[in-house]
Amino acid sequence: MTDGPLIVQSDKTLLLEVDHPRAAEARRAIAPFAELERAPEHVHTYRLTPLGLWNARAAGHDAEQVVAALMDFSRYPVPHPLLVDVAETMARYGRLQLVKHPTHGLVLQSLDRAVLTEVLRSKRTAGLLGERIDEDTVVVHPSERGHLKQVLVKLGWPAEDLAGYVDGEHHDIALTPDGWELRPYQEHAVESFWHGGSGVVVLPCGAGKTLVGAGAMAKSSTTTLILVTNTVSARQWKDELVKRTSLTEDEIGEYSGARKEIKPVTIATYQVLTTKRKGVYTHLELLDARDWGLVVYDEVHLLPAPIFRMTADLQARRRLGLTATLVREDGREDEVFSLIGPKRFDAPWKDIEAQGYIAPAECVEVRLTLPDGERMAYATAEPEDKYRLAASASGKNRVVEQILAKHPDDQALVIGQYIDQLHELAEHLDAPLITGETTVRERQRLFDAFRTGEIQHLVVSKVANFSIDLPEASVAIQVSGSFGSRQEEAQRLGRVMRPKHDGRTAHFYAVVARDTVDQDFAAHRQRFLAEQGYAYRIVDAEDLDDTLDAERAS
Amino acid sequence: MGRDDPRRGGHSPLGPRPDAHRGLGRAAAAHRARRRRVVARTLADDDVQDVLAWTTPRAVPPREAVAGVWRGAELLGVVALGTLGAPGAALLAEADGGSGPGADPVAALDAVLPPEVDDLLLQGDLTGIVPGRPTRDLARLLDDAAAIESRGGALTVRFTLDSVTRALAAGSAGDADTLLAALARHTRGSVPQPLEYLVRDAARRFGRVRVGAALSYVRVDDPALVASFLADPSLRATGLHQLGPTVLAAHVSAAELRAALASSGVSAALEDDQGRTVTAEADRPRTVPPGRRRGRSRYGTPTGAPASAPAERAARAAGLVAARAEAVVAELRSRDALAHADAGWGRDGAVLTVDRPAHGDGAPTAGAIPTTERRTAAPRGTTPHGTTEPGDLLGLLHDAIAEQALVSLETVDARGVPVTRTVRPLRLDGGRLRAVDPARDAELTVAVHRIARVVPTPTTPTENA
C-alpha cells in the first residue's frame, strides 16, 4: 500500500487528491486514458470509459501502461476486476484494422480471426463489406469506410484506421507570427493532431481554438473546408485567418445562406449543409467541390446528425474537430470518436487558467424571493409554463440593475432565453438588444461597438451563446437559461472567460427565482461550474448589496 | 452453524474458542484441534467436507453448514482465496494455546483492515469524499445527511436537498446549526458556502408543511372566540390547541368536543369533511378511541342515566329550563322503552340510544341534549331501526367510516328490491359510498341516493344485552 494521490473505486471512477505532492504527476499519467468528469477544489474525479481507453489506445498507450499508472499512484490496492476489464477493453481496439491493400484497395484486416468472424456474422455489417480475400482480410467498400467504423464501435470492436488520407489539393498556407505566436499548448495540440491523423482537440472557450485550426491548416498546406455553427462565427474565422496566416481575403470563401463562394479555403455553416429541399440535401456537392486536404469541424459537440452522415463519406480526408467539451447532450460521443477521430489533445480548463491564458471567473448565484402574487401565479400554473414564469420573474430586472451598479466600469452582458423578458430588460437598462431577429450586419455593428467600449451593456438572447467573440465582457448576468444544459453553461462562461488585457477577475451571475424550477435548473449549473473548479457562491437578492460591498472591501 | 448442537455432539469447524467447552475433556479437545488443523490445511470447502467425513464419519456436519461457515470465514478475512489469512492463523494459534502477538485474532483482524479515516473533504459541487474507511461516527453522519455516490477505497457522497431534508426530518442530525457543526468537525477546512447555504435552505423549507394528529377541530369566524376557548378551564381536558388564527384542534372526538363546548355555553354546528353542516345522531360518540370502547361496560338500566348530574348540568349550561329538560328525559325514556320492545331491530336500536347514557362520564351525555331536543321539536324519520333520514344517514355513515365500524346497509337495487347487507364503510365522497362487505370480502360502491336505511351494528352484540 503506497501513499498515492489516487483512489481507484470499483465503479471505475478515479479520485485524484489535488493537494497531494504527487498529484500533478498522477494527473499526467492518467490523463491519456481517463476522462476528467469533475474538478472541484480538493478531489478530481476521472472516469474510465471504453471510449477513453480506446482513445488512449489510439494515442499509442497500452494496457500495461494504464495498469502501471493505476498501481503506481493508487493509495489502496486496485480492485482486480477493474484491471482485468481495462486490459480486456483496451485489447479490443485495433484487433481489426482498416488498411490499404496493394491490389484490393481498402480492406479490413483482423489480427484475431474469431473477432472478424463475429463481425462478419453481425447483421449490422451487412452491405458494408465485400468479398473475403483470405481468412483474415475482407474488402471494404470505400464509400462505407465511415459507416463501418461507426458500426464497429457499436459492436465493441473499434477498428484502427490505418488506411491513410488523400493528400488533397496543395495550397500554401503559413502562419504569420508578427507580435504573437502559438502558445505552447496550442502547438502541442497541433502536433498531437497531426501525428494522430484525424481527431478532436479539446480546449476551453477562449483558449484559442481558432489558432489551433490555423496551425493545423499551415501544417497541412492544402485546400481546407471549415464547418462552423453560424454566419457570425464564419466571419470571425475569416477575420482571424486573414490576420494570423498568409491567406488573403480573396482566398477565403464563405458558403452560407447569404453567400455561396467556393475558394481554396471555404468556411461553411452547418445550417446551409443541412438544408433540405424536397427531401434532398442540396448543398452536398460542396463536400466534393474541391479535393479538400483538411476538414475542420468547429464546436464538434454541436455537430448536427446529418453532418455525421456526410462525414461518414469524408473518411479519406484529414479531419480536425475543435470543441470545448466532448460531452454531447445527445450522447453521441461515440460517433465523434468513430467518424472524426479519437481525442488528440485535452487540457483541463483550470490548468490553462492557471497559466494565465483565461481570466479566472467568479460565479455568484443570486436567489430572488418571488412576491406573493407571483408565487401564487407560479403555484397554479400549468407545468409547462412554470419554468417560463419563474425564469421571467419581474423582480429580476431590479436585481440585474443592482448588479450592474456594482460594476460601473465593466462591460457587461445580460443573457436570457425569453424574448419578452429581454425586451423589457433592455428597455429597463436602456441597453441595445440582440436576438435572432437582429440582422447580421446590425449584430456585427453592436458587437463592434461593445468591443470598442462604445456600448457598455448589451442584452443578448441565445444567439450570442455560440461562437461570437466579445473579448471585453468581464461581467455576464444570466437571467434565464435553457434548462440548465451543461453545454450551454460552458458557452456562457466562455463569453466572459476571454483573456482580459489587465487580468481582472471575470464575474458570472445567475439570477434565480427561489423555490421554483428555476432553482432546480440552477442546481445543475452550480454542479457543472463547481465541477469545473470555479468558486461558486449563493447570495440572497436581499443581501446582494451587503455581500458585494463586503467583497469589494476585502 | 455458529453454535454447537449438543444433541448431535458435533462442533462447528471454526466454532467458539475452546475455553467455552472446558468441561468436554481432553479427548474432545484433541479432536477439535485435529479438526482445526484439517481446516487450516485444506484449501476449498469441498475438501473440508471430505476430510471431515473421513476423520469423524459419525458426526459429519451438513454440507451447507460447512459452506456457510467457510463463506463467513472468507467475509471476515479468516480465510481468503482458499488459504488461511493472517487473522485465521492467529485464531488457530490462540486456539492451540499459543500466546503473544501471533495468537491475538483481534489484533490480527485490526491489522488487516485499513485505518479508519476521520477526514471529510467537502467541495463546492456539494460532494464530499472520505479518502479511506470512515470512522463509525463519520459514516453515520454521512449516511444520514448525504447520498452515497460510490464506495470502495474511498467513500464519495453527494449532499442534496433531499438528503439534507431527510437528515433534518429524522432528527438524528439535529437542526441546521448542529448539522453544519458536525460537518465542520470532520472537515479540514471550512464548510463550502454552497453547502452551508443548502443546509440552511433545507432547514428553512423543512418546517413549511407540518402534519399532526387531531381527533376533532373547531373553526370559528371570530379570533376573539379562539382566545376565550383557550382560556376556558372547563375545556382544558379536550386538549384544545390553536393551529391558526381561527382554527383549533382537540384530542377528543367531535361529539365530545361539541358536548364540552355546549357545557361552556357554546352550541357548535357539526360539519363533515366538505364543510357542510351535518345533522346526524350526534349524541352518539362520533369516534370512540379503541381503548375506551373496550372499557364501556354494561351499565345499569338505561332509564336511570339520562337524569344523571352531568346531563342536568349540561342542560343548565345550554340554557334550557328545567321543565324542558324533564321533557327531554321523558322523551328519551319512552324511546328507550320502544327500542327494547322492538323485536327485529331492538338490539341495534338500543345501541343508538341506550349506549349513550351508558357512557356516564359527563361530556358525551351532555352532547345528547341538543340533538334530542331537535328530535323532540320535530320528530322525523329517525327510528330505532337506525335511520332512513338522508341527512342522518350520511352522519351515521361518516361515523362508521371514522370508527371503521360495521353498519347494516339497506339499499335499493336496480329492480327496486331492497337488499340488506352488513358492510364496513370506507369513504363517502361525491355522492357515492365505498364500503367493504366482510362477508363476501368484496368492495362495493353504492350511490348514496340508493341507500334506504343505515343501521349501526354493535361491535359485540352481547355488550348491550
UniProtKB/TrEMBL annotation, chain A:
Citing just one GO molecular function, the answer is:
helicase activity
The cross-references to Gene3D superfamilies, in alphabetical order and at most eight, read: P-loop containing nucleotide triphosphate hydrolases
Note whether Isomerase occurs among the keywords.
yes
Judged by the first EC level, this protein's enzyme class is: isomerase
PROSITE patterns, per this entry? HELICASE_ATP_BIND_1, HELICASE_CTER
Q: Provide this UniProt record's keywords sorted from A to Z.
A: ATP-binding, Helicase, Hydrolase, Isomerase, Nucleotide-binding
The Helicase C-terminal domain extends over 399-552
Q: What is its EC number?
A: 5.6.2.4
Transcription regulation among keywords: no
Which reaction is recorded as catalysed by this protein? Couples ATP hydrolysis with the unwinding of duplex DNA by translocating in the 3'-5' direction; ATP + H2O = ADP + phosphate + H(+)
Membrane spanning segments where?
none
Helicase ATP-binding domain: which residues? Answer: 190-344
Assigned protein family = Belongs to the helicase family. RAD25/XPB subfamily.
The name of this protein is DNA 3'-5' helicase
The organism is Luteimicrobium album
